[in-house]
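Milestone 3.1: sequence recovery, worked example.
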C-alpha cells in the first residue's frame, strides 16, 4: 500500500482553524492560489511544506496521510 497526502483531510482541518487566505499568508505564499493549488493537488507539496502545514494545523504529520 502506498501512503499519500490526504488533501481532503488537510482542507477540512484547515477550514476548522482558518481561511484559505490566512493559511496562505501564514505559510508565506504571495497569494491564496499558492496554498489552494496544494489542497487541490495541482501542485506537489514538499516534505518541508507538509511539515509546516502540520505544525500550523497542530497535528502530527502522519495524520495528513492516507493509504491507497
Amino acid at each position: 500500500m502506498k501512503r499519500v497526502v490526504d488533501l481532503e483531510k488537510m482542507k477540512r482541518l484547515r477550514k476548522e482553524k482558518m481561511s484559505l487566505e490566512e493559511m496562505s499568508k501564514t505559510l508565506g505564499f504571495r497569494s491564496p492560489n499558492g496554498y489552494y493549488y496544494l489542497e487541490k493537488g495541482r501542485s506537489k507539496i514538499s516534505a518541508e511544506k507538509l511539515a509546516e502545514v502540520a505544525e500550523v494545523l497542530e497535528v502530527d504529520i502522519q495524520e495528513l496521510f492516507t493509504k491507497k
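The chain has one domain: 3-67. Residues 38 and 46 are 10 Å apart (CA to CA).
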